[in-house]
Design a protein that fits this description.
single chain, alpha+beta, Neuraminidase, Cytochrome Bc1 Complex, Chain D, domain 2, Jelly Rolls, 3 domains, 8-stranded antiparallel β-sheet, 6-stranded antiparallel β-sheet, 20 helices, 41 strands, about 25% helix, Mono/diheme cytochrome c family protein, metal-binding, metal ion binding
Length: about 950
Amino acid sequence: MKKTFTNKRDFFKVGVSLLMVSMTYMMCRTPYTPGSDNYSKVGPALNLPEGADPEGPDWKGIDLAPKAPVLPLSPADEAKRFVLQPGYAMEPILTDPQIDQPAAISFDGNGRMFVLELRSYMLDADSKDELEPTSRISRWEDKNNDGVYETGTVFVDSLVFARFVLPYGKDAILTMESNADNVYKYTDTNGDGVSDKKELFTTKYGRSGNVEHQQGFMYWGMDNWLYSTYNAFRVRYDGSARENTGANGAQWGVTQDNDGKIWFQGGASGVPSYFQFPIHYGRFAVQDQLAEGFNVPWGSPVLISDMQGGMDQIRMPDGSLNSVTGGAGNDVFRGTRLPEELVGQYFYGEPVARIVRQINPVVTEGVTQLHNVFQDQKQEFIRSTDPLFRPVDMTTAPDGTMYITDMYHGIIQEGQWTPKGSYLRAKIEQYQLDKAVNMGRIWRLTYKGMDRDKTQPRMLDETAAQLVAHLDNPNGWWRDMAQQLIILKGDKSIVPTLEQMARTDKNLLARFHAMWTLEGLGALKPELVRELMKESNPRLQIQAIRASESLYKNGDHSFENDYKAFAKNTNTDIALQAIMTLNTLEVPNAEVAIKATVDANKAKGIQLIGNQILNPPTTGGNANAMAAFTASEQESMKRGAVIFNELCSECHGDNGKGTIVSPGVLMAPSFVGNPRVQGNHDYTLKVLLKGLTGSIEGKHYAGSVMVPMAENSDEWIADIVSYVRNNFDNSSSFITKEDVAEMRTKVASQSALYNYDELITTIPTVLLSNSNWNVTASHAQPTVIGGKATPSSAFNFEGWTTGVKQAPNMWFQVEMPTETTLVGIEFESPATRIRAAAPAMGAAGTTPATRPAVTTLETSPHKYIVQVSTDGKTWSQVAAGEGQRKTSISFNPVKAKFVKITQTGSSNDDSPWKMQGMKFYQAGKTEFAAN
């Protein structure tokens, strides 16, 4: 193969790589037989947790004997390891050493293939140097049209773990780096295949943290918006606008079908993420979206059992995965050179299981359910017995076939999931998987008797008028690229041609693209849209409704009646589209039209979606109305909800109950009514900052590792912790960014992930109050009718109050029988709503319908100090601050027999001081009820 190199170092590296590959192939012939001398010498010492008993319950029965290392195969030999359905074949079109750790591919208008090379990904089990600027985007061509991409250049070099590559017009791409916020456009201005111009495209697009928890796959949809994983927003194709969307819950993979619906691929869940409806209408909860048994993969025997979830995730004796745990890359096949029954089918890789799945979407009464095509046969579309096969991206190619990106790598889970002492780390070291790096292959999937399309695209050199013809191409890639290039050219001279195509073309898909191309050019006319709305084909009518939304947003509200009329349509799909459009555009009196549809149409989809629109579910099952929170707490909850839906829900479930991976097995613990979550905030903060591994109170979870989130800001962590602590039937104090900063300092020396049994001993526990505590106060009054006016009521939900306006030097004191080491105090001070006296009848300026104003009084201490004493005479101050509706006070461990809280602030309102549900915290372990 031929390659264009930019420097001598590249040439040297390829030479070394070839030498290493040659040596590897020789090593592959070395026999390793259990019991032989060379077998006993292979493999490093296994790194079990310190003090771990190999015969203990977490390790007993696991084969930890040294094994022969897993060695790479040549592409030709790897091809022999594929287990394919009859008639299919896999042929390599670009392989190592030309490319290094490919993670995704895409094609420009001339069919040149851009390869996202994550050269720093998991070069060892600790992910050392993962954020070094060594990744790149290369560009490859098949100049002699023999089906192999032989000529390459490095288009953009020295990137920090780049997130995606999107070809963007002539000789340009969009991409961004990890832990960054900006998307840049890189352009090759002199035609040498190397970008020499960098321009800002859009900002506020990224996030920081674990590289697997950052956005990826910027994708140009048929609707001319750019979509990505994680981000709950979309950006206009030129970066000029941004709109919020539902949370897509995806990790690595975005694609679209022939109707322009965006499909998102989940990561840790191992299954597709959101796919029911276009995500800009919001995320709707639909039960049973996956057919029974969908979570069970049927990979070929790989024997090495290197699954992060441990033995619970492994099918014995073949060592394959028994429940999906990782998804990557996706494609709704839209090509022409594979069997027709594959068109419209959804494909994605499960690289942990070493499989590519074929999914059949079945739509019933407007609701889609996904079926693994080969589930009944206990097979998959593509399988491999090569442990290094790692399918991470699927792509409909310009030649009409499907390309599969194979990272061909030893470790496929990032370093925070492979800590020392973990099961997966033991398996990595047992088989020396950390040595299988710096490789990668791109495969073409073919079918017997169907040759690839050898027409080489030259769209970058064509005029807008020439490009229009490609909107009629049966291959979806050609249509997508022609639409993009026409819009970027901005040539409106072809508008009449596009209008004619939208009206009369025999190819329904060409009509879709013609209409959306007009929309992208800003040339879509209301009269054309209404013509298409009146067509007999429901799919075309739906496209017209969607396209009209742009006109409505730009001020043409004449479509209101059209939407309301479509909501009454007997076709369920059309009616569904109409009610989603009515809701998203906030059309006046939309609720009336939607309710009428729900009452009249009993189709499952109408009932599910219509009722969720009319009665929006409280996010996460929150039992507390947002009105119970202060304005700043409400903002924190909103930010936390976005974080949860974008990131946490994949493992912990949309409803916080934990994602089910198989009967009785959850990906991660449930948050619902979780005593650990709503207990002392040290627990959640330590887990977020340093991570958690192992069983929790003896219960195993498929995820087995909660990775640290310390890379995120203090506010980010405070928001998500506060959200979880006040959602899912939990009610606890809010966390501030100052709390997070303080905890960062405290746990700075913790270098490894926490083990639960270790962690729980560090968490403050509640010191239970009892009748021999002497609780006194400067003022006391019942908080409920018939209640007792005793300060001790502060420790229950009856509560204590001063009963009068707060004033400086009001105090509340507790004397305990013995000295105790305390570390904190929590209590609640619920706000009180009072209504002003009603005006007398006939008073000037009033009417009988006038309602007096309502005032909310905050009953927390305006300001406070906390003092402690061992004898009731000598006092020391341990804390000071301002009260909140849920006040949490932390201080350094201190011995105390007496605790005194003094109100020191002043205010112009008449609010009393109230406290209920008070807790004193001491160091020690709390026995939580099993979840």
